Amino acid sequence: MTAHPTLGEVVRPGDEDYERLRRTFAHIGSPAYVVRCEDAARVARAIAFAREEGLPLSVRGGGHSGAGFGTNDGGLVIDLSPIDRVEVVGGPGHLVRIGAGARWGEVARTLAPHGLAVSSGDTSTVGVGGLMLGGGIGWLVRKHGLALDHLVAAEVVTADGRVVRADEKEHADLFWALRGGGGNFGVVTTFEVSARPQAEVTFARVAYPADTGAAAVLKGWRDVMREAGDDLTTIVHVLPAFGDGAPAMIMITACHAGDDPAAVAPLMKLGEVLSEEIATVPYAQVLEEPSELPPAWRPLVRNRFVPCFADELADAVAAAVGTIPMMLFELRALGGAMNRVPAGATAFAHRDSEIMLSTVVLGAPEDHEPLLGDFEALWRMLGPHTAGAYGNFLTRITPDDLAATYPAETYERLAAVKRVYDPGNLFRLNANVRP
After folding, report:
1. Is 200-405 a CATH 3.40.50.20 domain?
2. Spatial separation of the C-alpha atoms in residues 40 and 46, rounded to whole Å
3. What is the mean pLDDT of the chain?
4. Region 333-353: what's the mean pLDDT?
5. Measured on CA atoms in the order 125, 128, 129, 133, is the torsion positive or negative?
6. φ and ψ at 9, to 5 degrees?
7. Nearest-angstrom CA–CA distance, 126 and 136
8. Is residue 243 a contact partner of residue 311, using CB atoms and an 8 Å limit?
9. Pairing of strands 275-282, 2-4
10. What is the DSSP-derived secondary structure letter of residue 101?
11. Positive or negative: CA dihedral 331, 337, 343, 349
12. Pairing, β 249-256 against β 355-361
């Protein structure tokens, strides 16, 4: 680390930790400064320096931004990872105070002895801050809603260096915007959330062939989920063939919020089963560590919400398997608690969705270039079935993606909040809302 007269100890090019800290999960930057912040006061100093020097400013929690917003070239990175305390406060609302740099695996492990959980993402190393501010769709989304639906209050450092508390009474406009508007309005250093009683879950996987009968499996999965209770959340991966040893397959992964193997049994009867597994485990155990990417890989990810998963869309997905090399589909069942939050109650605008449909093209950027025409054609075909996008799962945020993430009414309200808290658009390395 290097001593700086304004920032204190920072990491700069040439320092021992620079190579590690310039990298995020899938991106490598060349920032001029990485400031590892232990508290809101240090965050405020870093913000002031970036503003005064006109530097691009990135804010990094876990570093899993698919679009690479956790690093930059020539700017300043605020690294929140030292602010990682998870404190169980308790009380009637099961209050938990979580540092923005904590990882969801640590949150789950800390809450497990108390029989509590917070609906989060799927993996253990994803940071709390970015996922919480953008939504938080994971294994308990139907039972307990989005991660942001647990939020009670937030400590925020604004563009002018103020440290404010945002909740339903104080800075209520900011509190609304934080729940879905991402990092547009300031740097959240601490979240106060209301956890839910949740101990063990039934976790299951079943695989079906995708070269025959894929559409029938997808429709069967949809029908099971339409009859299922809120306790059951599922994700479907439709995988192409990977070489000679890995045939195209449909993998359904299920998490039932309780010890009840019978709840996942209907998912095991949708066709010719290639493999299956069922186990009752602590919730913390289902948050697995993501596999490390090959060095040059930058997955190309796009998603859209689907209000109604119609037969025509299931047929289209099944027909598209293998048509774009190294591309897989992901379908997440939504509904339940997520959809019972009133429209407009938060800046997450997509409360009427039945599923979220994503495509993931594996490989390096140069591998993607020849495929982009077919990729765009595929999404033009899927477009009539979709409405809205999830900013946390986008790797290239186009104007169309931004408009899908924030519908016009939501965007206008977010822009009004932006004008109050960040009129100069200092926080612009994100799914950006202009003031």
Report:
1. no
2. 10
3. 95
4. 96
5. positive
6. -80, 120
7. 11
8. no
9. unpaired
10. T
11. negative
12. unpaired
Per-residue pLDDT averaged across 315-326, rounded?
Answer: 95
CATH architecture of 2-79: 2-Layer Sandwich (3.30)
Average pLDDT over residues 126-150: 97
The rounded distance, in Å, linking the Cα atoms of 199 and 275 is 27
Q: pLDDT band for position 161 (50/70/90)? A: very high
Whole-model pTM above 0.90? yes
Instruction: Assign 293 a pLDDT band (cuts: 50, 70, 90).
Output: confident
SS3 content of the chain, % helix, strand, coil (to 5): 30, 25, 40
User: What single-letter DSSP state applies at residue 430?
Assistant: S
Cα 108 from Cα 111, distance rounded (Å) = 5
Q: How confident is the model at residue 8 (pLDDT cuts 50, 70, 90)?
A: confident
Residue pair 434/193 in contact (Cβ under 8 Å)? The answer is no
- Band (pLDDT 50/70/90 cuts) for residue 246 is confident
CA angle 71, 75, 77 (to 5 degrees): 45
- Domain 86-197 is found in CATH 3.40.50.300: no
Where along the chain do its domains lie?
Answer: 2-79, 86-197, 200-405
Question: What pLDDT, on a 0 to 100 scale, did the predictor assign at position 294?
Answer: 87
The 10 Å CB-count burial string (b at 16+, else e) for 382-420 is beebbbbbbbbbbbebeeebbebbbeeebbebbeebbee
Tokens 């095991």 correspond to 268
pLDDT score for 350? 97
Amino acid letter for position 41: A
Amino acid letter, 82: P
Model confidence at 133: pLDDT above 90: yes
Instruction: Reduce the DSSP state of residue 250 to 3 states and report it.
Output: strand
Helical segments of 92-228, H only: 104-111, 128-134, 141-144, 172-178, 214-227
